[in-house]
Design a protein that fits this description.
Layout lengths: L4 H26 L8 E5 L5 H9 L4 E4 L2 H14 L4 E4 L8 H7 L2 E5 L2 H14 L4 E6 L15 H9 L6 E6 L8 H14 L3 E3 L6 H6 L4 E4 L1 H4 L12
Parallel strand pairs: 1-2, 1-8, 2-3, 3-4, 4-5, 5-6, 6-7
Helix pairs in contact: 1-2
The structure holds pyridoxal-5'-phosphate (PLP).
The site of pyridoxal-5'-phosphate (PLP) has 16 residues, from strand 8 and helix 9.
Length: about 240
């Protein structure tokens, strides 16, 4: 008897998770860090609710989605069954989706412009709640990519935290694909240190060990866990 296709896939997801957890722990120890100081965000975009359920069954609780619409379709039912689940929004956010994004997400990693900060603050005032926020920095100054300009990042964070009273916990970046990510990770870590921010979301399937060496507290891994995406990634051209 052969196993049904979905249980084969479940086994693969569990094995992939075990492998990346081991690599995260090894990279943390090599950098003299506690492996528990690095949180794995499993990026489930383009993969169905059954893939998320398989990861939950393998002990994964933190997930990342880049589109509000897709998160809305997948997560409310999973959350009802798994109250421990935490959802991070990691894709560019339009101001007209702020209300829904804030209702769905535990963390929004992509605060990157004053207009969005104002919209989030307005919705916080209306609803009385606000997810934790990370400020996304466009470390490679790529015109097609989301994120605030590195030269404006410090003033923007100060304005969000001070005038708007937003819960900014850290910084996030996606370095240019064709460059060594290490200097970008180092820059982001230094910026967070200067600002007294604890969280650093950096590192994807191809570069998370380098990111951990430079202090990442959140690594966002998709393909290393779930395999190739089912559709072209509908996010900033990374
Ligand atoms: C898709 C995505 C990831 C995961 O990418 P992989 O290379 O599949 O690990 C990480 N961060 C963001 C912002 C993404 O959109």
């Amino acid at each position: 008897m052969t196993a049904p296709a979905d249980s084969v896939q479940d086994d693969t997801i569990a094995a992939n998770l075990a492998a990346v957890r081991a690599r995260i722990a090894a990279a943390a120890r090599a950098a003299g860090r506690d492996p528990a100081s690095v949180t794995l965000v499993a990026v489930s975009k383009t993969h169905g609710a059954e893939a998320v359920a398989a990861a939950l069954a393998a002990g994964q609780t933190v997930f990342g989605e880049n589109r509000v619409q897709e998160a809305r379709a997948k997560f409310p039912a999973l959350r009802a069954a798994h109250p421990e689940l935490r959802l991070h929004l990691i894709g560019p956010l339009q101001t007209n989706k702020v209300r829904e994004a804030m209702a769905l997400a535990d963390v929004i990693e992509t605060l990157d412009r004053p207009k969005l900060a104002e919209a989030i603050a307005g919705e916080r005032d209306r609803s009385g709640r606000c997810p934790d926020l990370l400020v996304q920095v466009n470390v490679g100054r790529e015109p097609q990519k989301a994120g605030i300009d590195p030269g404006l990042a410090e003033a923007f964070v100060e304005d969000c935290r001070g005038r708007l009273g937003l819960p900014v916990r850290g910084l996030m970046c996606i370095p240019p694909v064709d460059e060594d990510p290490a200097p970008h990770f180092a820059w982001l870590a230094e910026c967070a240190r200067k600002l007294g921010l604890a969280e650093l979301s950096m590192g994807m399937s191809g570069d998370f060990e380098t990111a951990i060496t430079h202090g990442a507290t959140l690594v966002r891994l998709g393909s290393a866990i779930f395999g190739p995406r089912h559709a072209p990634a509908p996010f900033t051209l990374a």
